[in-house]
Design a protein that fits this description.
Layout (H helix, E strand, L loop, with lengths): L3 H25 L5 E3 L18 E5 L11 E10 L1 E4 L15 E8 L6 E8 L7 E4 L3 E3 L6 E6 L5 E5 L4 H6 L3 E6 L10 E14 L15 H10 L18 H10 L20 E4 L8 E4 L11
Antiparallel strand pairs: 1-12, 2-3, 3-12, 4-11, 5-9, 5-12, 6-7, 6-8, 6-11, 7-10, 13-14
């Protein structure tokens, strides 16, 4: 039996504890898989201006898609170049949304110094705990937009400050940052004279097998990427079995990944298929999507 006075104290205790529980739950589930493409006005929470004269601004045109494609520009006049975001969609529990990588388009303008870009994740709990990309990505000063991927895997990150295991980090990210940091990886970065431009910054799940154009679907477009890349030994999205070369085995990876299509109904890579267009109902990771798939002669030929 609970007496009135005891019931009163239990109610007061609930009032005191509930706000902190709600805060923890909100912080843990805030992160979302999303893209910042800077179409809306503003910087979408990305900052870094002020330190050492660094400035940040949204530019309304000239992004990777050309005229009308907005992007973000960071200018560092010889100071530490660092761009960061602590909005809810970039913080909290990355594990809960199966986040595995961050992709972006980047450009370094002519006249800048080369940028050694690393991802930095702050957490858990405090910005005093930091993990950074083990290998830096070089952004050449050639004024060319290129896509880049930054892995969140433990094998690709190095703890440079504080405590906490990798799994704890991804369960409680408090800030995301990109900064110039040549070898070896450090907790603070280094100065650089450069103008870094970013677009389409995305928190993403792992790439699905067979998704060679990385659009989240398994479709005819991925076949086209495989066909165009056939024989390439360079790092390539179409190397589905990661054996270092785009070959017939990678076609099989794509074919087997086609949702709702029996493998026997898709031609082997060595066959000569001249059918103009075959309609195949593909979920393509989206139920009900109908994609027109055209198969071509996939047998490689020598050219004279």
């Amino acid at each position: 039996m609970i007496y009135p006075l005891e019931r009163h104290f239990r109610f007061l205790a609930l009032l005191l504890v509930a706000p902190s529980l709600l805060f923890q739950a909100g912080a843990a589930g805030a992160a979302t898989l999303h893209r910042d493409d800077f179409t809306p006005a503003g910087t979408s929470g990305w900052g870094g201006g002020g330190a050492g004269g660094q400035t940040v601004q949204r530019v309304g045109t000239g992004g990777p898609a050309g005229a009308g494609d907005a992007y973000l520009q960071f200018q560092s006049p010889g100071a530490n170049l660092a761009v960061h975001n602590a909005l809810p969609e970039w913080t909290g529990n990355f594990n809960a949304v199966s986040a595995a990588r961050i992709t972006l388009d980047a450009r370094n303008t002519i006249g800048s110094e080369p940028i050694a870009l690393r991802l930095v994740l702050f957490g858990p709990t405090s910005t005093g705990n930091r993990w950074t990309s083990t290998l830096a990505t070089t952004i050449a000063a050639d004024n060319v937009w290129r896509p880049y991927t930054f892995s969140l895997a433990a094998a690709d990150l190095t703890q440079v400050l504080g405590t906490g295991a990798h799994n704890e980090l991804l369960s409680g990210v408090v800030q995301v940052m990109f900064r110039h940091d040549p070898d070896p990886p450090s907790s603070g970065g280094e100065p650089v004279l450069a103008t870094l431009e970013l677009d389409n910054i995305r928190l993403r799940a792992a790439r699905a097998l067979g998704d060679y154009n990385d659009d989240g679907l398994i479709s005819a477009a991925d076949y086209s990427v495989w066909q165009t890349s056939f024989g390439s030994a360079a790092p390539n999205f179409a190397d589905g079995n990661t054996n270092g070369v785009v070959d017939a085995a990678d076609y099989t990876v794509w074919r087997d990944a086609l949702p709702g299509v029996p493998a026997a109904s898709v031609p082997e890579s060595s066959a000569l298929i001249l059918a103009a267009s075959a309609l195949i109902l593909l979920g393509g990771r989206r139920i009900g999507r109908i994609v027109a798939v055209t198969f071509y002669d996939t047998q490689p030929r020598e050219t004279v």
